[in-house]
Amino acid sequence: MVKFLKYMLPLIIVFSIGTAHAERLENQVAVFSALEKITATIKNIEIPINETVSFGVFEVTPRVCYTRTAIELPQTTAFVEIDEVSTDKTKLNRIFTGWMFASSPGLHGVEHPVYDIWLVGCKSPIK
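Request: output the structure for the sequence above.
Response:
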């Protein structure tokens, strides 16, 4: 066991020194683009964190929105909950809960027969 530690400890130290940690910035507002397919209208929607905004049949609630500092590679992520409101407006159906990535809108957006919505950014970093 002592021999193992003698050889492994320097390796552990070398690898732990060389690792970088990206600083994550928490923001107050999530920015989405939304498409209404019937009229081909695209709208930018700014939603404060933990507030709900309606778009078409959707109710969108971002829970967090993270970015990185300007000196790091861009990575914008948000945890979002999206509900679809029934036509008689009495029921909500949760159609999406999860992380959206601005760098991959085609993979992490919500597609609907009439409406699409995807994350494009964050605003107002919390100081």
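The beta strands are 24-36, 41-48, 53-55, 58-68, 77-85, 92-101, 110-111, 115-125.
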